[in-house]
Design brief:
This protein is mostly helical. Helix content is 72%, strand content 3%. It has two domains: 59 residues, no CATH class; 321 residues, no CATH class. Strand 3 and strand 4 form a beta hairpin. Helix 6 packs antiparallel against helix 13 and helix 9 runs antiparallel to helix 11.
């Protein structure tokens, strides 16, 4: 093991990590890049271990360690979000490049299904070759015997199915531009649901950042010239709120899967993508049964590149969910709009109108504001102490119902006995 990782491992045992030693080893060991980006390093053959946490006494005795590891964590998250933003922007460019005369000659339903299949193949290969055999067999055995876990992993897929259905209904009750504008409500509903599910209290600048993001996305979707919002605006708003609720619930449940279970991230991805493939095939068979006869009709090289890029982007987004949160994923999607505006100008010669520039400026300001080192609502200091909101204290007093974990051996034995 490199000396810097050995030093870092000693932090969890109460020791200290030398910043100078780490810097020297970083310049000579490219494996540390994977440690920063993915938060994992090799311990033995193929065993991936998470970055060590800092004990409170260590932080209090040596604040330099706190600053160093916070910078390391922020660098890792920023790298993941940056890659995810670029990949999502590239997906938008490839999506337009795959069109012929402004239309898709291939089935978008089959494209979504193939994307899920490619993601499943990549995640399965990573789980097979990057996880030790004993750990791999143990996790597979535990997952297959736990019906609660299998149902738990199926929940995001069912919710995303609701997202797709309500979005389709939204497009049928109103115009496409109005549907695109109203769909941006998911930015706000995700933050609200995140507060109640995870107790993740946001500061007022962060709420203002979310409002600016919503405004920028709405402005980018606003039609130029005369605006036609359709005659069923009230119905469209109700459907949009249902869509936003489904979208927020799907994102929150997916984040909970990544953070509340002890399986390998590759097994989590593989299990989620199995359900994703099943949901995509069912959706394609219900909406357009004719595509099953000739599923690959109209596919060109850009459509194939789009499938591969979307698959890799999905894996990066899962890393954002694991190391960040759903709100950060929404910010990454919003930031991809800023990159797409300029990529479309370079690749297709699309003119950048002032409306789009103003939207990009709002989203950029929102990203900067959300990352400001402000004190959050859940950590208000008064007289050297910390004051928690009353509703959060009330929730803390309620009996906990922990999610199933990898070590629920008694429950697994009961389930296997009942079977």
């Amino acid at each position: 093991m490199p000396a810097c990782l050995d030093n870092a491992k000693s932090v969890s045992d109460g020791g200290y990590c030398s910043l100078i030693a780490f810097s020297v080893e970083f310049s000579h060991n490219s494996a540390i890049i994977r440690n920063i980006v993915f938060g994992e390093h090799r311990e033995g053959v193929g065993n991936l271990m998470p970055l060590p946490l800092i004990h409170t006494d260590t932080v209090m005795n040596n604040p330099v360690d706190l600053v160093f590891f916070l910078d390391l964590k922020m660098l890792r998250i920023a790298a993941i979000v940056g890659v995810g933003t670029l990949l999502q922007s590239l997906c938008s460019v490839l999506s337009k490049a795959s069109q012929v005369d402004g239309k898709y000659e291939y089935s978008t339903l089959i494209s979504n299904t193939l994307t899920e299949v490619v993601k499943l193949l990549i995640a399965g290969l990573l789980f097979a070759f990057r996880t030790p055999r004993t750990q791999r067999n143990s996790e597979l055995f535990t997952l297959c015997r736990s019906r609660r876990h299998l149902i738990y992993f199926a929940l995001p897929g069912l919710l995303y199915l609701g997202v797709n259905y309500t979005f389709f209904v939204l497009y049928t009750v109103t115009t496409p531009s109005t549907a695109q504008i109203l769909s941006n409500f998911k930015v706000i509903t995700t933050a609200v649901l995140s507060e109640f599910i995870f107790g993740r209290l946001l500061s007022r600048p962060q709420w203002l950042a979310l409002v600016l993001t919503f405004t920028g996305l709405t402005l980018s979707s606003w039609p130029l010239g005369d605006s036609d919002f359709g005659s069923n605006l009230a119905t469209a708003c109700i459907v949009a709120l249902i869509f936003a609720a489904f979208s927020a619930a799907a994102g929150i449940s997916c984040e909970a899967v990544f953070k509340s279970t002890n399986y390998s991230i590759h097994l989590k991805n593989s299990t989620l993508y199995v359900y994703g493939v099943l949901m995509s095939v069912a959706t394609a068979a219900i909406k357009d049964p004719g595509v099953i006869i000739n599923p690959f009709h109209g596919f060109n090289r850009y459509a194939v590149l789009l499938i591969c890029t979307r698959a890799v982007a999905g894996l990066v987004i899962s890393a954002i969910m694991k190391y960040g949160d759903t709100i950060l994923k929404n910010f990454s999607s919003a930031a991809s709009l800023c990159v797409t505006v300029f990529l479309a100008n370079i690749c297709f010669g699309d003119a950048i109108v002032p409306q789009e520039l103003f939207a990009v400026l709002l989203i950029f300001l929102a990203l900067m504001m959300y990352g400001l080192p402000e004190v959050k609502a859940g950590s208000i200091t008064r007289g050297g102490g910390t004051v928690e909101p009353m509703w959060k204290k009330w929730i803390a007093r309620q009996p906990e119902a922990p999610l199933p974990t990898f070590d629920d051996k008694e429950e697994l034995d009961d389930e296997s006995a009942s079977v």
